Amino acid sequence: MSKRTLTAELRHIRFQTSCVRQAVSAATAALATILLACADAATSPTKVAFTSADPANDGALPPPNGLVWTTVPSPNRGTLANELKDLAILSATDIWAVGEWNPGVPPTATGRRTLVEHWNGSSWQLVTSPNASWTGVDLSTLEAVAPVSSNSIWAVGHANDFGSFKSTTLIVRWDGIQWNIVPSPNPAGASMPNELHGLAVVSQNDIWAVGFQGSPRKSLILHWNGSSWSNFPNSCGVALYAVKAISASNIWAVGEGTTCKFNGQSWTKIPSEEYADFYGVAAVSATDVWAVGRTYYCTYACTSVSHIERWNGSKWSEVSHATGSQWSGIVAIAANNVWVVGDNSTWGISERWNGTAWTQVAVPNAGSGSALNAVKATGTGQLWAVGRFFTSSGIPRTWTLRR
Length: 403
Fold this sequence. Notes:
Layout: E1 14-15, H1 18-43, E2 70-72, E3 82-91, E4 94-101, E5 113-119, E6 124-127, E7 139-149, E8 152-160, E9 167-174, E10 179-181, E11 194-203, E12 206-213, E13 218-224, E14 229-231, E15 240-247, E16 250-255, E17 259-262, E18 267-270, E19 277-285, E20 288-298, E21 302-311, E22 316-318, E23 326-334, E24 337-343, E25 348-353, E26 358-361, E27 371-377, E28 383-390, E29 396-402
């Protein structure tokens, strides 16, 4: 349904002969891990308990490096699927999170409606949010959220009809009292895909939303000038999933296989060092920008591998890190304090850049299938992350973490 759960298109696959060696190495490492686990079990008759606030925790051991994230209870709508995809922080007592939930209406398995929650400093509360209302809509979801002020919060996403190619852009705004839909263009036409996945605020009269349109997908960039949203011409060429504004004349968008930069007048495609799907972008400065996502390795089967690149003012370069399956969110607090979140195909994961290297940072074990979709920081450096975990019945529910 979202960019984080769609199956990778085969045209994205990069074949490398080194993959065979990587597969052998991975298999060897996995066997060693199993043997060590067996040895531990034989010498330790008592299972070590892992305590957290996570309702999905089943007593399994946490990832290495010590627990620094804690789960904060967050509400859900209904009894079916709920997931948070992004969050926006104004202060430690004013945080918004957006995503989707399953209301149980046909098609029950895939139908979704918008989900919005607010943190008031002591608890998360559900907030009523609007949905697309055109005939045939099966899904209304919010992919990204960004603040102008406490009385002006924007969120973007899309609405889809699963019985056709049709999807429309969805933009909503909080006016201090309620969320309202704001009209937005659909350049590909009413019967073709139009989706928004990323959002960046420069000022109240200068806001950018990115996504994709048409089939095959090509980039979609919308701009808010203070009174209306309009389609902004660009040469990015591919689906875009995230956008970061450093200034009005220095904005980065990232997506399928490349990055794109706005110089104040036009958007220019700037190739990444390696082909990857980028889902997050953050900046310390104009000469220190990070892009994260995943790439693909294939032998007889294809594997998703997390990917990180860094812009130094003139080019992108891959940065080594502990491998997961995908990085979905990133926040850059300082040159020596950058955080990423995502998943390793088993549970949610996190890493931190200390100025020299990336290091794994443990998160509560929310069970198989859990994932973190976004991470943001308060002005004092407190971190929040959102995503989903699965109950013992296999139902995804909202997951919020704080550090």
